[in-house]
Each structure stands twice: as structure tokens, then as C-alpha cells.
Write a structure and sequence with these properties.
alpha+beta; Rossmann fold; Elongation Factor Tu (Ef-tu), domain 3; Alpha-Beta Plaits; 5 domains; 8-stranded antiparallel sheet; 6-stranded mixed sheet; 29 strands
């Protein structure tokens, strides 16, 4: 049943909760829902706003969620955002729908890399920042040190910093009071042409596309015909509502309000995030700023272990893309793994999440190829060719240079581990841009590092070398020329595309030795000697030989003249030479799967 009555603009407060990973955003959202009575206590559970099972199991937020609550006569629209760097595009979209941001900092860990990144994003959107120290009840909490870091590095007045415990609820009522007092009400113009920002979309299998919106100007009502200003397509609003936290239809939404619309669409891409909706009868002239489209940064091939499941994989990817339009895919084939899809993701965690959702939600058994990034080759005649699959690299003679993507990585490190972190960054071809102490115990280091060196195991190595105390955030920093080569693997002198890789020349030999040794262990012996070689162009950089399996042709020769045995062995040797010339090497599927994971070892 639809509620009626538009909310007074002066009583609306729109805010996001932003922080580093695992600093307590979802827990704070839970306490706010409990305190405002938005959820029946019998139905309440941890991570209430995280709707996917995989979010609860991993303890991370993947999709931003919004909910409407009331507090002392004010209407609060809360948006809970992810903290991991792979999902930072979700944060930037959410901030565009707000006037304020609660900056949450763990009182035991202090400022982390993603704290800085999200705070700078909020400042770019000119939001009112409410700084909060969470987990003050932990034995390891050091509020004084954390307050000093926020004051000295972000210029935040210590008198404005609140101390709370999201787990126990201590300080949360005072936080809500401060939000009402300090976060400004939305600017509103009832008489201006309708302008509505679409800041998120999700796919519901029964109702189609459900778009999260923020009304900027004018008033929306159900059955209203709206126009998408960027695409020029018209839609009819079948349902208009707010989440409290369950979806609840309303009679209208006015300026400053956050809610959702259902238009009957079946494809998220038809009503993209960042789109501006306006009235079809009296359209606005100028669209809202919107967002940059998220660009894939990491690519890998996904192949079904059972080739008959290829149509199911295609259908599953299409369905998953309806609820996550940030990954892309296109068909590709491999001589070793058969037919599959080349997929692009925002990062390694994003790739892992999509693969796990495909296996869990659609019952697929998949092999993922080694992650790669997108390179740009400069050919003669000022021609540029972008590629991410080693098999697509242009012929060596045509290439003048190759550029690789680099990132600007911000690392926050305890002072005692500075040597280990510098060594790690330098071993990954990193270049230091700056180093600045946040306090006597911790410092911020900024490096440019090739993305290819970051995506495989850089984060794991960073955590391992600093015992889990360092944190990292990164952002794209364009392209840079590098001495890159394609390492090819040849089995019995025939190249196998599935094992090819694009690497910096300095690490090519190490990779070549590792992969030929691994293959020599995994490939069964054939009836002829099998040379396994790693090559850069025409130069062989590593080699192993699998010795032939020998049939005992002299088993029946008991004693007698030795020349009979020699004749049989010579005949066998001649037969093996002919077989080697025409024989194909049998490579088991397990060998491909194991070698594709060589980067994890």
C-alpha cells in the first residue's frame, strides 16, 4: 500500500558511510536500523543490508545499499558503501546522491589507505564530513593516536571527532544527532523541470530492472512518463518507492528524496547508472553530471570444464551482468581449453567474486586463465593496437614499442616494516613518488607500479611482509612504455597458446624455468622424447625433456647372441624417431589447470 505525503525538504538528510575495509560500516548500519526502529527486532541479523550470501560469508560489502529511517522528526537516507578498492566505483556513485559522509576509522588501526581515498572522494563532491572513531571498546584501541592522525593529515578539528562503538551501540544516538545538526538539507527547486539521478541499478527476476534514484528537482509520481536525457528513450514509471528497509511504494517523491523506480525494463544497460531522468511532457534541457563508466582493469578467460556447458555459461554471464554491469565479456577460443569467454573485471577480488557467483548460483565448473591487463602496442605508421590476451600480440617485427598500464599506489605502513615494503615495491618495478610520516609510528608511501605486477599477488605479499598491518589503495595512472616480451611455451616444438604470457624482459627467464619444470612434472611420459621449451621470439630461455616410455622389446630374448637384442633395440629407436616427427603430445586437463595457477605459487 502506497504511503502519501511528500517529505519536507528541510527535514531530509542524505549521507553515506565510508571507510577502509572492515572498519565497521555494515555494523554501524545495523545499529542505526535498530536504534531508529526500522527493522523488527525478531527479524534483525548481522549485516542486514548485505543482501547476497557471499557478502555475509566473506564479511564484505559488494553492492552499495540504501535505506530510509527517521530520527527525531528528521528523515535520514543512509547509503552503506563497500570498502574494498575493487568496488570504489560503487562509493563514488553513492556520494553523488548525498550531502554528507560519515568517515569511519577503526580506533585500533587508525587511518588506512582506503580511508584517505574515500575521504578525498567525499571532499571532491563537496560533502560535509562527519569523522567518527569506531571500535573504541577494543583493548587495542588508541583513540588519541587516531585523533592525532586525522587532525594532522586530513586537517580535521579534533573537537568534531566522535567516539562510538558500532558493536555495542555506544555513541550512535549522539552520532545521529550530529548528522541531523551538521549535514545540510538538500537544495530543492519544486518548480524546476524534473531531474532525477540514477545512482545504482539491480536486476530482479520477477520485476526487471530496479533503479535507485535521487530526485534533484521537481516531483515524481507513478505512471508518469519519463525521458532518459542521455539516450533519448522514454519509459513509464510502473512503481515508485522508498526502502524502509523493505521496498515500500509511495504516492510521490520530491526534491532531495532517495528511493527507487521500476520501469519494466529487462536489461540494466538500457537505463545506465549516471543517467538523468526527466519528465517527457516538460523535459529539462541539461542532464546531471553523471559518472564515468567503470573500465575493466583485469582480464581473464573463463572456460567450462565440460565443453557442453558453454551455452549455460553464456546465459549465466548475461544474467549476472544484469545485476553487475561493471564486468564485460566476449567469446574466445583456446586450442587447449576449448571455447570460453574473455572477461574484464575491475580488480582481482571482483574477478574472484564473479567466478564464485557463477559456480555457486548457476552450478558451473570453471577454469580461469591467468589474470592479465590491457596493453597497447605501437606499430609502424602511428597505429595503436590494444590487447590483453598474449595470443593477440602483433607480430614482433611490426612492433615499435609496447605500453603497459600503471597505477598510483598509496601504502600506509608501520615504520618498522618500511624496508620490507620498499624492497617489495622495487622488486615489482615500482617508482617512489613520496613518503610522509602520519605519526611517529606510521607513514604513507606513494608509488607508481605496473598494474600487471599488482594484480596477481602483490597485496598478499604486502600483508605477509608486514604481518597484516599495512594497507593499500590504488587508482589508474595511465600508460607507460616498458620492455615487454611474450614468453611462448613449445611442446615438441609446437607452441601452446594457453601457456603464453606477456612479461617484462627481466622476469621472463624466471617464469620460463618455472613453467617448463612444472609441465615436466605434470605431463605423462609419451612413447618418444618430448622437449618442453620456453622461448622469447626465436631464443630458447628454458628447456626440460620428458624421457620416452620404453617398451621392453628384448623381454623374450633369453641368452644367445647379443646381436639379436641390438637389432631389436635399433629398430625400436628408428620407430621412435618416426613417431616423434608425427606424434602429438597428450596434455591432461589437470596440467592446464595447475599451470594456469602458477602465479599463485
Amino acid at each position: 500500500m502506497a504511503s502519501s505525503g511528500r517529505t519536507a525538504v528541510a527535514s531530509i538528510r542524505n549521507f553515506s558511510i565510508i571507510s577502509h575495509v572492515d572498519h565497521g560500516k555494515s555494523t554501524l548500519s545495523d545499529r542505526i536500523l535498530e536504534l531508529t526502529g526500522a527493522v523488527d527486532p525478531r527479524l534483525m541479523h548481522d549485516q542486514y543490508l548485505d543482501s547476497m550470501d557471499i557478502e555475509r560469508e566473506r564479511g564484505i560489502t559488494i553492492k552499495a545499499q540504501n535505506v530510509r529511517v527517521t530520527w527525531k522528526g528528521s528523515v535520514l537516507n543512509l547509503i552503506d558503501t563497500p570498502g574494498h578498492v575493487d568496488f570504489s566505483y560503487e562509493v563514488s556513485r553513492s556520494l553523488a546522491a548525498c550531502e554528507g559522509a560519515v568517515l569511519l576509522v577503526d580506533a585500533s588501526q587508525g587511518m588506512q589507505a582506503q580511508t584517505l581515498a574515500t575521504c578525498y572522494q567525499a571532499m571532491e563532491h563537496d560533502l560535509e564530513i562527519v569523522p567518527v572513531l569506531n571500535k573504541i571498546d577494543l583493548p587495542a584501541a588508541d583513540p588519541e593516536r587516531c585523533v592525532g592522525e586525522l587532525e594532522s593529515f586530513l586537517g580535521i578539528d579534533r573537537s568534531t571527532i566522535l567516539l562510538v562503538s558500532a558493536k555495542s551501540g555506544k555513541g550512535v544516538p549522539e552520532l545521529l544527532d550530529v548528522i541531523v545538526a551538521r549535514v545540510p538539507a538538500p537544495k530543492a527547486n519544486l518548480d524546476a523541470p524534473v531531474r532525477v539521478l540514477v545512482f545504482d541499478s539491480a536486476y530482479d527476476q520477477y520485476r526487471g530492472v530496479v533503479s535507485s534514484i535521487r530526485v534533484v528537482d521537481g516531483i515524481l509520481v507513478p505512471q508518469m512518463k519519463v525521458l532518459a536525457l542521455n539516450t533519448g528513450k522514454a519509459y513509464e514509471l510502473q512503481e515508485l518507492g522508498v526502502r524502509i528497509p523493505g521496498p515500500t511504494p509511495v504516492a510521490e517523491l520530491g526534491p532531495g528524496e532517495v528511493g527507487y523506480v521500476i520501469t519494466g525494463l529487462k536489461n540494466v544497460r538500457e537505463l545506465r547508472t549516471g543517467e538523468t531522468l526527466t519528465s517527457a511532457a516538460a523535459p529539462a534541457r541539461k542532464a546531471l553530471a553523471g559518472y564515468r563508466e567503470p573500465k575493466p582493469m583485469v582480464f581473464c578467460g573463463l572456460y567450462p570444464i565440460d565443453g557442453d556447458e558453454l551455452p549455460v555459461l553464456r546465459e549465466s554471464l548475461e544474467k549476472l551482468q544484469l545485476s553487475d554491469a561493471s564486468f564485460v565479456f566476449q567469446p574466445e577460443s583456446s586450442g587447449a581449453l576449448g571455447f570460453g569467454f574473455r572477461c574484464g573485471f575491475l580488480g582481482l577480488l571482483h574477478m574472484d567474486i564473479v567466478k564464485e557467483r557463477l559456480e555457486r548460483e548457476f552450478g558451473l565448473d570453471l577454469v580461469a586463465s591467468t589474470p592479465s591487463v590491457r596493453y597497447v602496442a605501437h606499430l609502424a605508421g602511428s597505429v595503436e593496437v590494444a590487447f590483453e590476451n598474449p595470443a593477440e600480440i602483433p607480430e614482433r617485427g611490426r612492433i615499435e614499442s609496447i605500453d603497459e598500464p600503471v597505477v598510483r599506489a598509496t601504502l600506509i605502513v608501520p615504520a618498522e616494516y618500511i624496508g620490507q615494503v620498499m624492497e617489495l615495491c622495487q622488486s615489482r618495478r615500482g617508482e617512489q613518488l613520496s613518503m610522509e610520516y602520519l605519526s611517529s609510528e606510521r607513514l604513507e608511501m606513494v608509488y607508481t607500479i605496473p598494474l600487471a605486477e599488482v594484480v596477481v599477488d602483490f597485496f598478499d605479499q604486502l600483508k605477509s611482509r608486514t604481518k597484516g598491518y599495512a594497507s593499500m589503495d590504488y587508482e589508474p595512472a595511465g600508460y607507460k612504455g616498458a620492455d615487454l616480451v611474450r614468453v611462448e611455451v613449445l611442446l615438441n616444438h609446437a607452441p601452446v597458446d594457453a601457456f603464453s604470457a606477456i612479461l617484462h624482459r627481466s622476469s621472463a627467464e624466471v617464469y620460463g624455468r618455472r613453467i617448463v619444470q612444472k609441465l615436466a612434472e605434470l605431463i605423462p611420459r609419451q612413447l618418444f622424447d618430448v622437449p618442453i621449451q620456453a622461448a622469447v621470439g626465436s631464443r630458447i630461455i628454458a628447456r626440460e625433456t620428458i624421457k620416452a616410455r620404453r617398451k621392453d622389446v628384448i623381454a623374450k630374448c633369453y641368452g644367445g647372441d647379443i646381436t639379436r637384442k641390438r637389432k631389436l633395440l635399433a629398430k625400436q629407436k628408428e620407430g621412435k624417431k618416426r613417431m616423434k616427427a608425427i606424434g602429438s603430445v597428450e596434455v591432461p586437463q589437470e596440467a592446464f589447470i595447475s599451470v594456469l595457477r602458477i602465479g599463485d605459487s
